[in-house]
Amino acid sequence: MKKIILFSVFILMINSFIVAQSNDFARKEFAYKSAGDSTFPTIYDSVAGYLWDLSKNKWKDMMKGFFTKDKKGFPTGELYLECITTGNCINAENRTHTYDNKGYPTGVLFEKWNGTKWENNKKESYTYDNNGKTKTELVEKWKGTNWINEVQYLYSYDGKGNKFYSLTQKWNGAAWKDTARATSTFDTNNNETNYLEENWDGKQWINSTQSTYNYNSKQEMTDGLYRLWNDTAWIDSQKMNFQYDGNGNQIKETDQKWSGSGWENSFQMNTTYNSDNNFTNMLAQLWIGSKWTDYQKWDYYYTSGSTNISELQLSTSQFQIFPNPSNGKFTVRISGFGFLNSDLKIINVLGQVVFQSEITNPKSEINLSEFSKGIYFLNLKTANKNYYKKLIVE
Questions:
Q1: Residue spans in the chain of domains classed CATH 2.60.40.3080
Q2: Phi and psi of 73, rounded to 5°?
């Protein structure tokens, strides 16, 4: 499975917990899945982000994300925590996804934590053409008692299904007003080769940014050039180079910025994948002085499939939780002599242990009904490894 990832955009997306409207990578990797998308990757169940502390020369917790899916694998919820200090993470943002009967995403509700409860922040709504392509995206902001229009995006496609035009409009309180537009061109293999963005100044369209991309014989993007308009000409700003593994997965992005006289290293991202070609680790580095310096990293966890992390998943037959979801009362069943006398912990999304017991019987009845509804993780610790299962209390 080929994955092409613009990591520099991905950094900003994770830090703000916001999915960029025009970011196709975000649409694909974070499960804005449309019917018939055969290349849609397995979505991870959780992610942990870390920030490099230069003063202490070590990683510190930055964010955590937890995801839920329906029976078809479509994401239904995203919960993000912001880490104040290592081990102390608090609610930040909650997202709820909805779909129509064809499996097309119809919207996402964004809620923010006000210290005691979730409150509306913004919502996105999508419509589609007869070919299942996104036709419109509407963003609304919550203003105390009702939803207010904020921005909308209108898309057009060529005969091959490539999105060649998008129009951005903002709400002025009474009507939609044009603010920006983007035009793309494609080669014979339907690879985007040029992206032009223009802004509306009230009278005419003015150049803003331009990106050009090149590809190798495997149709992998090898490099890109980003330019800014200075009122009279295009000025080089940033260029990107990409490397891939034998499966076509992007394993490295290196960015350079134009200093006015030459190119200077700026940013790089390295990523690793598991045997299912799902990314498991990302490391972002900044060029400081004369060397690459750690900046941020992310670890991704999946329900199934092998990973390169020590937290492995037991097979369904070995480690069972039922019912799941539950009302807080559920049964844990362990099979296999090697798992008896293991330590079982139940951890909430804040990293707090709410239950702990030694497994002395293959079947254990547990009651969490006194605790808050939400996502919990069961951690089974043997002599050699840690195993995890996710539990939902409704």
A1: 311-393
A2: 90, 5
Which residues on adjacent β-strands are paired with residue 201?
Answer: none
Cα-Cα-Cα-Cα dihedral sign, residues 350, 354, 357, 362: negative
Task: Judge whether residue 275 has pLDDT over 80.
Answer: yes
Q: What is the CATH number of domain 311-393?
A: 2.60.40.3080
Residue ranges of the chain that CATH labels 2.40.160:
7-301
DSSP assignment, residue 114?
-
Mean pLDDT (whole number) for 354-364: 81
> Which pair of structure tokens corresponds to residue 376?
């919990």
- Per-residue DSSP letter, 14: H
Decide: 361 and 389 in contact? Cβ < 8 Å.
no
Is residue 252 a contact partner of residue 280, using CB atoms and an 8 Å limit?
Answer: no
CA dihedral for 366, 372, 375, 381, sign (positive or negative): negative
- Give the per-residue pLDDT at 119: 96
pTM of the model: 0.71
Topology, domain 7-301: Porin (2.40.160)
Would you call 12 helix, strand, or coil by DSSP? helix
| pLDDT, tens only, 137-169 | 999 999 999 999 999 999 999 998 899 999 999
pLDDT in tens, 174-192: 999 999 999 999 999 989 9
Q: What pLDDT score was predicted for residue 52?
A: 94
Distance between CA atoms of residues 75 and 289, nearest Å: 42
DSSP string, 280-315: EEEEEEEEETTEEEEEEEEEEE-SSS--SSSEE---
Which of residues 103 and 280 earns the better pLDDT score? 280
